[in-house]
Amino acid sequence: MNNKLKAEKNLKLKKYIIEYFRAIIIGIIIGLIVGCFQLCVSLISDFSLSLYTSSDPYIMVLLIVLLIIFSTLNFNILKYFPSIDGSGIPLLEQGIRKEEKIRWKLDIPLLILNSFVAIFCGFPLGSEGPSVVLGGEIAQGVDDISKKEDTSEDVAIASGAGFGCAFLSPLAGLVYGFEESLHGFKFSLLFKAIIVSFVSFFVTFLINKNHLLSLNNVSYLKDESISIILIIGFLCISFGLLFKKLIILLKDLFEKYQDINIVKWRGYILFIGVFILNLFLNSYMGSGLNIIKGLTSFNSILLVIGLIVFRIFITSLSGAGKVTGGLVIPIMCIGGLIARFSILILNEVFYIPLESYEFIYLSGICIFFTCLTKAPLTAIVLFFSTLVYSSHSFNVFNASSLMSVIVIVICFLVVNILNEDDLYDDFISIKKKRNSNFNLINK
């Protein structure tokens, strides 16, 4: 009997060792691939900017030739591999729920390639969504190779690690894996999730040290100015609902009328439109990181309102179109613009002087992110991790940051009361609706 118990104990120990060793391998591979991916994204974005802003006519010819090549490549990749349309997060979440099969072997290289295409062409889409999918699909690949049967939990925590690597915030990635991918907390997965998130972060940090949301000057609001965060929260809910309704409407229409030629070929139309916009409005295109970094330079209320409307429309159109790219950074860009609008209104209309601009921008970014993803814990952790990274100090807990946290939670509760799903669940619902209609037609 003792020998049997000892054998069972050894077997259980061996199982744990294999499981945690697999977690380390997944973390290392995610760190390598996502780190290199993010570094290449930065380099491609800079190279694209240099071409679009060049006055050399030969460069213009080169851009037109590349536009034709890349738009054709994009069309054919998404025609045969629709799983990488958009960021790929909705399909990944369906894979976690075991509603779809994750085809990682070709999805990983094609997702990377098509993301590079969209970023080079200047689409208002980000690299963080593909990073999430890369994390999940890498876990799926490692589990398949090691012949693990139930892979959904590994995919979920690894997708969070991909998020953490994109933002250089392992804690945000850890929380994202539970909150957004698993939609719940499992204590039994905590240690493994910590291993994957932190191993991937350390490997990524060796390759890419560019924090997407780093602040130049961290200072906090005075007590009498804290109320601006409440104003930003109200505006984020309002504009968030507008953005969500628009992108869902467009995606639903594109799915409904996908057999009409103009809808079927919309990828080409988008490439042409984005090309023209980048020639004349390059400063306002791209993922939105350039706008976030230059928010303080926008001193006209009308310009900021125009940018909010423009970014909502172009991001919705691109997010619902036949292009590969993430929505998180573009969403955060709109949040930052809403914060800038609030500052200008209080300064110029009500003559209330405000400082701590970058803190206000970060608050707007995280609040708007919450309104659309319904991931308040991820937003809060990302908020504090950005403050810690930028200030090189853990002394970030004060009345200002507490107010930002309160407003994040309030916005989440309001969105819940309004019975709004998170953006990715809405995308999944549209896809299921289309498949259901397709099955009824076939019957």
Task: Summarize the structure in words.
It is a single chain. With 443 residues, this protein is mainly α. Helix content is 76%, strand content 0%. It is built from 18 helices and no strands. The protein has helices at 2-52, 57-80, 89-96, 104-121, 128-145, 152-167, 170-182, 187-207, 228-256, 261-264, 266-281, 289-293, 301-319, 328-349, 357-373, 376-391, 399-417, 423-442. Helix 6 (152-167) crosses helix 7 (170-182) and helix 9 (228-256) crosses helix 14 (328-349). The model has no long low-confidence stretch (mean pLDDT 90).
Helix content percent band: over 70%
Count of distinct strands: 0
* H-E string: HHHHHHHHHHHHHHHHHH
Summarize the biggest pleated sheet: none
Q: Average the pLDDT over all residues and give the rounded result.
A: 90
CA distance, first residue to last residue? 59 Å
Low-confidence stretches: none
Beta-strand residue fraction: under 5%
Using only CA atoms, what is the Rg? 22 Å
Which structural class do the helices and strands define?
A: mainly alpha
Number of helices: 18
In one word, what is the shape? globular
